[in-house]
Amino acid sequence: MSIPIAWTELYAHPLPEGHRFPMEKYDLIPQQLMYEGTIESHQIFAPEPLTEAQILRVHESSYWERLKHQQLSKKEQRESGFPLSDRLVERETIICNGTVLGARAALNGAQCAFNVAGGTHHAYRDKAEGFCLLNDIALGAMELLEDTSVNQVLVIDLDVHQGNGTAKIFEDDDRVFTFSMHGDRNYPFRKERSDIDVPMPDGIADDAYLELLHTHLKEIKDRVKPDFVFFQAGVDILASDKLGKLGVSLAGCQERDALVFDFCSELGIPLQVSMGGGYSPRIADIVDAHANTYRLAMRKFT
Ligand SMILES: [Zn+2]
Question: 114 and 271 in contact (C-beta within 8 Å)?
């Protein structure tokens, strides 16, 4: 069995000089994984853009029309965090399809699939926020719920920032259980309500972090019987991250991934992994932490 990985050259679409978003990681992660022999090129697939019908399963048509035609207001553009362009919008539809196709592949026998980008959890039905234009996990969840035998989805969002868009989109939908562990005093400063929220204090380190995750995964086992898991595996929980404010080590971050993978494999639930955030000042730290998630999955699921 092989783990499919979504990636295209457009993932690392260049931004204007000085933009603070670390685009280059989307090239460096697959390069590193191939170079060291963790993955092989045949695992990588290049998604096409999502169709409009797929996008409208989650997003409001008035928002999508304005996004597509570059008609967002100045304020909306600013909140997106990106200098918007046709190519960046196309990039988002391709990344989101990477999550959708990966989810289908995981469900249809691969058990686990990865997206080198994605985890765009700040996107709402009707607005862009924090480098997220469309919500890939919400799009993947709706696709599975409407088109396959999946009846119950679990979102495990362990990026340091709350999955506010995902929480809001599924606030009144019992078919998607949302779980988010995040920095209490970090962005977004107005949190939404997930099914389980675990706000964490600044500086929390490995032991306390992993204990919290372990406890809540146990609680989730009692509360919900998912057919599918979407894992937002942001590595901005690292102590080295310039936005994260937490104190988790590289080894602790991989322990985190192990708890999620073990949760899924013990219950026999397929999962799709989206990369999420990572903003350590040294790009090598970001790439190594993301690569660790793949390294572990390759050991556990193949
Ligand atoms: Zn984040």
Answer: no
